[in-house]
Amino acid sequence: MELPTENYNLLTDIKLVDKQGLAMVDVDCHVPVNIEYHITNIFVILCERGYAKCDYDFKPLELHTHDIFLGLPGHMFKLDGGSNDFRARIIVISNDLAYKIRNLNISHYNKFSGYNAENPLGHLTSEQFAQMNNAFNLLETVHSLGKTWRENMILNVFQTIIMMRHEFCPIPEDTDTKADLRISARFQEAVINYYRESHEVDFYANKFGLSPKYFAALVKSELKVSPRQWINQYILMQAKLLLTQRNDLNIQQIAYLLGFKDQTTFCRFFKKQEGLTPSMYRNSALAS
């Protein structure tokens, strides 16, 4: 799928993923600005030319020619623009297929997921890029086939792409194989599961049997942001998605869905974080 305008919103195609199992998008335009996404799928970006600016778990990154980016579930991703000659291929895998890929080789998945959280970006040589691009072409062909054996073929080809990525950009031998068990990774997962129940740091510290002060210091040492910042940014991102993607919900309903006790508290939180009220943000998004 080629994207002819700079107003393209990646979320439009991501919403189709769970119906089709897989989305493949060729981005051949100026990178869209302010696309924020909490990753619930596995996705891969292969940069052919130019560069793009992005944030991954609040850390700034740049994708350059022949870079490959691997995003795994439980993280936050934002595109912030880039060069006019930016061209990339994007693959997004559904939650169902992502779960099956993980279970194909769970010990290896756990090792590289912990490492990938800190190192989502790799650089390929020209030869490696050509080989990876061929693998993308094969996946595109498989995706276009009929239903017979289609899912198995997608799983096999996509797993090959993941393995090629780690063959070309290997995990250092001294990498801690228990990296996926870091407190920050478990904290992120807990926020995803319990943010409607509590927005408080103390709640999550208690989940891990740690004092709030020690817990906050530990999370910040790993994520480089405080747990309070992470919680706020996660809730803000969910709020933006609901405001722009769920026009059937009013502001009060969104407030309750996000775990706020009332609409006033939600509006106060949103304006403090974003500088706009939820209604102003929604109207601005609909008008753009």
Secondary structure layout:
Layout lengths: L9 H11 L1 E7 L4 E6 L3 E8 L2 E5 L2 E5 L3 E5 L4 E7 L4 E7 L1 H10 L1 H13 L2 E3 L2 H18 L6 H19 L14 H12 L6 H7 L4 H12 L3 H19 L5 H7 L5 H12 L3 H10 L1
Antiparallel strand pairs: 1-8, 2-7, 3-6, 3-8, 4-5, 4-7, 6-9
Helix content: 40-55%
Radius of gyration: 20 Å
What is the subunit organization of this protein?
Answer: single chain
Read across the widest sheet, the strand sequence of neighbours is 1-8-3-6-9
Biggest β-sheet description: 5 strands, antiparallel
Order of helices and strands: HEEEEEEEEHHEHHHHHHHHH
Structural class: alpha+beta
Mean pLDDT: 81
Task: Please work out how many helical segments DSSP would assign.
Answer: 12
What is the 3D form?
A: globular
DSSP strand content: 15-25%
Q: Based on DSSP secondary structure assignment, what is the total number of beta strands?
A: 9
